Amino acid sequence: MKPRFRFLCVPALFLIVVADCSASSADSLRSLALKGPAPRETAFGFKVDNSAARYWDEFNLVRNANAGDPLAQHELGIRYLTRDGFPSDTAKAAFWIKKAADQNLTPARYNYGLMLNNGWGISWNPFGAYEQFLLAAMKGMVEAEYVVGLLLTDNLTVPRDYAGAYRWESLAADSGYEAAREILKEFKRRRLDRRATRPECDSTNRKGRKARTHLSSVPQTASGLQPIFLDTETDSIPLPDDTTLTREVLLAANAQLTRMQVPNPARSEKSDGEADSAMVRRIFDAGEAGSPEALTLIGRWYERGAIMKEDAVEAAVYYLRAMRFDSPWASALLWKMIRREDFFRRLKEEADRNEPSAQFAWAELIASDFDHQLTQTQALGLLQSAAAHGYPPAVVELGMSYYTGTWLKQNRERAIGLLQKADGMGFREAGIRLAMIDVQEQKKSAPAGSSMTALRRAMEDGSVLAQTMLAYCYETGLGVSRDTSEAVRLYRKASQRGSNAAYSALKNMYDGIRPPDPRFRIAE
Fold first, then answer.
1. Whole-number average pLDDT of the chain
2. Are 33 and 47 contained in the same domain?
3. CA 343/CA 337 separation, integer angstroms
4. d(CA 53, CA 18)
5. CA–CA separation, 318 vs 15, rounded Å?
6. Same domain membership, residue 43 and residue 106
């Protein structure tokens, strides 16, 4: 009978999706291991018990796998992974899928790469994973082409190569892989779409490429995984529009927010009632939890007078808060806004009236080197004044200045007192920072359960700080069981959102196991 390829496709590289699809008629490998029995209907509507056939099929699958049939080996590994007729066992799954990969079965190479990349049933090894993905991509597997393209963007496994990444994504997109098409749109928006020759691939696997189906039947949906663009020069990149900022909020959002409809400023001046109001509240909640995407979008609303009443000072406050969390767009948007002729006149007028939001914004502009009209001492005075007026962002910033020793002499007690004050005002970021401090300072003992719960909740609500902190906990075994694959997953997600701290920690993990092979050498 005609064999089936079954393999895993992970649009985000960390979630398994298992798909069955028939191999094309040109496939030469055949296996009698996979019978795919199904109970037959009788003329009277009764179902015949076919369990004996199922057991016989499983027996033959194991026998053929042990005899060296790569399709049977691959199928057996998948069944151990998905608990399909066999007990769940990731170690056995990795063992059998590797057996098939060693015999050059392309889907097995891809799936073994996934297991190496995630540390499922085998030690985490992104470098071995890259080799498997590349071999599968060279055989024309579109999912592997897509993944290789992504791995060329992050400067973690191999040196960053945007031109090479673009070529691989183009190959996948040419075959109709929708996730690759979405990545190409981002490349073009960032002006990274350079002309280059296609990679050398197995030509026999590319004949009639556009007419043949993918090796996977996984639905072609947009991927949550994005390239990491931490080093692109924002001066050369067009600033994002509201649609782009909204899309990034949704990509980082929890399921509850994603199901709601984002208000469209271009649709009308006023919102459409309760649905829009609920979404706006959710986005503000995500911003207060520490979502850089939400804070940037809110800043844009205030800047343009869309959704919120136009207020350049309030827009600056939100952009500056987003910059605390390494928002990839906030600094460029803020820089463009403050260069307007009337911005500093308006900011000074409000600061002179002791408006705490203006005082906070001006102090932060000085701290961020966006303005030099005041001395550091004057800027600190503005921050202290805003904090004295009970302005929560200023209270938190002043508290962190005491905690880190920036601008002020380090004073932990004063710092904790200020953060607790802001937390008592209901300012979410303060509570998150207190939880982080609690976890960080209890390295020799298990951190309080309430702090870990607070961090998990904050991460679910959009906090990139909590996401990075939890990744650190999984990396070190602090308060949780050590889990390298989960640490990598969370660090990578935070890195994709712009977090330099997460990216640095992730790179340290890669460097800790980096092989001496020149292909994997990353220039400092």
1. 83
2. yes
3. 8
4. 23
5. 33
6. yes
Of the pLDDT bands very low, low, confident and very high (cuts 50, 70, 90), residue 253 is low
User: Is residue 219 situated within a structural domain?
Assistant: no
Q: Helices marked H in 305-391 — which ranges?
A: 312-324, 330-338, 343-352, 356-367, 376-388
Same domain, 192 and 248: no
- 221: confidence class by pLDDT, cuts 50, 70, 90: very low
- Provide the pLDDT for residue 443: 65
Kindly indicate the confidence band of residue 3, based on its pLDDT and cuts at 50, 70 and 90. very low
pLDDT digits (tens, 9 = 90+) for 58-76: 899 999 999 999 999 999 9
Look up tokens 């197995």; give the residue. 202
Give SS3 for 84.
coil
Q: What pTM does this model have?
A: 0.81
Sequential DSSP letters for 279-306: HHHHHHHHHHHT-HHHHHHHHHHHHHTS
Here the tokens at position 186 are 């981002």
What type of residue sits at position 162? Y
| Cα(54)–Cα(52) distance, integer angstroms | 5
In this structure, the answer to whether residues 374 and 359 fall within a common structural domain is: yes
Query: What is the number of other CB atoms lying within 10 angstroms of the CB of residue 357?
Result: 20
Q: Are residues 351 and 325 in the same domain?
A: no
Q: Residue 207: pLDDT above 90? A: no
Task: Give the three-class secondary structure for 19.
Answer: strand
Contact 498, 327 (CB under 8 A): yes
CATH number of the domain within which 406 lies: 1.25.40.10
Domain count, the chain: 4
Q: Which of 426, 441, 463 is the last residue of a domain?
A: 426
Q: Which 3 state secondary structure label does DSSP give 18? A: strand
Q: What is the largest CA-CA distance in the chain?
A: 91
Is 496 within 8 Å of 228 (Cβ atoms)?
yes
Phi, psi of 5, rounded to the nearest 5 degrees: -90, 130
Q: Please indicate, yes or no, whether residues 373 and 392 belong to a single structural domain of this protein.
A: yes
Phi, psi of 41 (to 5 degrees): -80, 135
Provide the token pair at 132.
Answer: 């498997």
State mean pLDDT over 174-181. 94
Domain range spanning residue 420? 341-426
CA 284 to CA 280: how far, in whole Å?
6
Q: What is the rounded CA–CA span in Å between residue 456 and residue 467?
A: 8
Residues 301 and 346 in one domain: no
Task: Tell me, yes or no, whether 302 and 192 share the same domain.
Answer: no
Q: Residue 208 has what pLDDT?
A: 44
In 10 A of CB 524, how many CB atoms? 2
Task: Tell whether 511 is covered by a domain.
Answer: yes
Classify burial at 355, counting beta carbons within 10 Å of its beta carbon; exposed 0-12, middle 13-18, buried 19 or more.
middle
Contact 56, 25 (CB under 8 A): no
The conformational region for residue 177 under phi > 0 = left, psi -120 to 50 = alpha, else beta, is: beta
